[in-house]
Amino acid sequence: MGVGALPAQAENSRTSYIEWWRPGKESSRWWDNSSDYASTTVSFNTCETDAQFRWASLSLWRDISSAPDRNYGGRTNYCGSSAWGDVAAGSYYFKLDSLADGEALKVKTVTIYW
Fold first, then answer.
1. Neighbouring C-beta atoms of residue 103, cutoff 10 Å
2. How many CA atoms lie within 13 A of 42 on its CB side?
3. pLDDT, mean of residues 48-58
4. Which of 73, 2, 89 is nearest to 43 (CA)?
5. Sign of CA pseudo-dihedral 18, 55, 73, 6
6. Mean pLDDT over all residues of the chain?
7. How far apart are the first and last CA of the chain?
8. How many CA atoms lie within 13 A of 24 on its CB side?
């Protein structure tokens, strides 16, 4: 899936924002029934840091209550879309791993598709 492309016929989506997150911060959880073949995607619109925004490193995690959470890998987000493909049913969240510049991230619109 290309940068800026949105998943076709996603099972669901949620829109929120990020207000000055520092690396290590996690999003709230969402449940993916895996009832489709759409990619799990995190989309950023209007990004800034306390320096100059260049990119943010994100990772997708599956929340597993009886074992360590499963990491689905990292993506570099240039204030656009980051996709992880079709994932198994479960509870998920994304994590801010690092920033190219600055110590905190603000994003006006964050949309999660699953």
1. 11
2. 28
3. 96
4. 2
5. positive
6. 93
7. 14
8. 2
